[in-house]
Amino acid sequence: MIHSIKEWFKAAKPNPSTADACVQIGCHYEEVSEMSFVLYDDVEHALEATALSYKTNHSRYLGALEELSADERVELLDALCDQVVTAVGVAYMMGMDIEGALAEVNRSNWSKFEGGVPVFNEHGKIAKGVEYTPPELSDYI
Question: H helices within 39-141, ranges in order?
Fold first, then answer.
């Protein structure tokens, strides 16, 4: 499934820039914020602010991202892998079919393309166009 998701990103952003990475980091924080909201955590607003900052203030982060050392890149990759593993673990522990749900989310993401071309918002985030259909996840609970 990770390969299929990666193919969607490659189709949307074949040559991603550091600014694109900033937008994606912002999107990642946005999703963690949504989880925080559902779980009634107190960090939701801080995460939302961080997400928005990454998505709209690229210049603030570009230099830092471009100057990550090899060791820092390894640490970042380790953290990202751990996030995927812990997300799968949470879904498993709560009786959710994460593989089926990911396939459905991936299907929905492809519907953001219009005529085979991705739609972007003003911040460079892949947006929901007129052909978008939301994922139906209730069957995976």
Answer: 44-56, 58-66, 70-93, 98-110
Instruction: Tell me the per-residue pLDDT of 59-74, one tens digit each, with 9 for 90 and over.
Output: 888 888 999 999 999 9
Model-level pTM?
0.85
CA 38 to chain centre: 17
DSSP line for 4-61:
HHHHHHHHH-SS--HHHHHHHHHHHHHHHHHHHHHTT-TTHHHHHHHHHHHHH-HHHH
> DSSP character for 139?
G
List the beta bridge partners of residue 114: 117
